What we know:
- The protein has 404 residues and is an all-alpha fold.
- 74% of the residues lie in helices and 0% in strands.
- The chain is globular.
- The relative contact order is 0.15.
Amino acid sequence: xxxxxxxxxxxxxxxxxxxxxxxxxxxxxxxxxxxxxxxxxxxxxxxxxxxxxxxxxxxxxxxxxxxxxxxxxxxxxxxxxxxxxxxxxxxxxxxxxxxxxxxxxxxxxxxxxxxxxxxxxxxxxxxxxxxxxxxxxxxxxxxxxxxxxxxxxxxxxxxxxxxxxxxxxxxxxxxxxxxxxxxxxxxxxxxxxxxxxxxxxxxxxxxxxxxxxxxxxxxxxxxxxxxxxxxxxxxxxxxxxxxxxxxxxxxxxxxxxxxxxxxxxxxxxxxxxxxxxxxxxxxxxxxxxxxxxxxxxxxxxxxxxxxxxxxxxxxxxxxxxxxxxxxxxxxxxxxxxxxxxxxxxxxxxxxxxxxxxxxxxxxxxxxxxxxxxxxxxxxxxxxxxxxxxxxxxxxxxxxxxxxx
Length: 404
């Protein structure tokens, strides 16, 4: 309970950002049902419908670094508010569109605007907290996101019984509402450019004149170290459900049970877990999280009962709860104050690239080489990430090169 009480000591801004994330994610309905909408309501073929998801990923890939630079130029709060309100407005105009080309352009624009949310909120969370409390802040925000994502698609399933258009209108309303929350509550706060206190033993650079993230090889190595996990993790949304149903003959409901357990664990355990491991170095957290994901995800190949399946979910969920908040905190600590948006944009782009490569690569391996090679490959990716994690360095460059 102490870990939950400690959350109350987090800055007010962190709670407001998490509330906005919750509202925004509760309305996440269009993306989960996009292919269904295109094939059933607009009668597109599955291939062209699936291509729309690729376009969404491409928009997110381009948006992340651009949004990060805009955060540094105009402020992360401005980018966050514009992202939420503009994405809501775009969604309002999408239901009447019937042309494939026009809809593709609209989805590309929507994804570019919508995914500007990620680097902006990461930048603000890092900006509002000192390094000692960043893991807890990111963990709180992840709880809000996961809680919202557990509600949004479920509510969307009921809405489509009446009209697919309702998905767009409700999603739009929650995006705009989240933006309004930020305008009325967060703008009243004095957002600190930098919390008092040093960055600590693992702190990042704070020099205003620090160089670009694109030439910070220490940061680029960190991104390379977590990229294999990003690719492996995406199998949960690509090959994992196929393997459960086709190869292990589990009922489709088993896949829903997997994510119910995953979400419940994140909501109940992630905050106490990150409080208990707050003293860990980023390197230790990254390596431990990668190893648990490396062991837990491929373990599905050896299960035959639902209890055994859920046991593997527990393993990789612990890996997720340790690794992802630590990775966000590590990126925030490594980023210079004046370039935090750029760093967080590149960090978000790394995961967006994983969203594109992971499903494509995993599906290709699954189709052409079989599930055994797929899961051996996932194990290899996790072990590679753990090995590379040992080389992640977060000490300020001044300590390594005698100053800048």
